Amino acid sequence: xxxxxxxxxxxxxxxxxxxxxxxxxxxxxxxxxxxxxxxxxxxxxxxxxxxxxxxxxxxxxxxxxxxxxxxxxxxxxxxxxxxxxxxxxxxxxxxxxxxxxxxxxxxxxxxxxxxxxxxxxxxxxxxxxxxxxxxxxxxxxxxxxxxxxxxxxxxxxxxxxxxxxxxxxxxxxxxxxxxxxxxxxxxxxxxxxxxxxxxxxxxxxxxxxxxxxxxxxxxxxxxxxxxxxxxxxx
Length: 234
Hints:
Distance between the termini: 30 Å
Number of domains: 2
CATH class of the largest domain: Alpha Beta
Number of strands: 9
Largest sheet: 4 strands, antiparallel
Number of helices: 4
Order of helices and strands: HEEHEEHEHEEEE
CATH architecture of the largest domain: 2-Layer Sandwich
Strand order of the largest sheet: 3-4-2-5
Structural class: alpha+beta
CATH superfamily of the largest domain: Protein of unknown function (DUF541), domain 1
């Protein structure tokens, strides 16, 4: 990958000066700009969710105290389920008054709502359902997600880049042949931003009398790269 970056940098004639614009080298022959996309697929191996506790009480202090106790129980359940400390991060804390509204009357504070949410990552997707069930059993009453991703996408993205270059070359050869020309060289390569895409993960929950067995289907994720490639034809 480093070697490819160096080749591209040399071909583009990049300046190291801050803010300098990249100017492609001059093309003596016919210029051809090609946009090509490459892709690779992987089964997601990292899932993250937002899990939290929302509590209500008549005073702010009581709401925060109850919330802290329930969140402590939730965090303990995560640890017991085998989730590492590095995979749990506080993402939001909140405290807000609750109002009662009357006609032509100023709102009256009736209590307070406290919330605490953490982002949890599961490195074993197959165990994600077990962890989710443990969270709910421990008192978590707010769950958002899941978000499934590929933990180490570099190899898949490099496959996509290689495929995109091959497609660009094939397309350039096609155009050149149709025009009675030949491909002389690649003048410039730039990579457009892209994001993994794929089917949205789904929760599947089967309930018996007192048992909930939640499953997450990881499916397959598509990782794509789009390249803008400039050729010189002669």
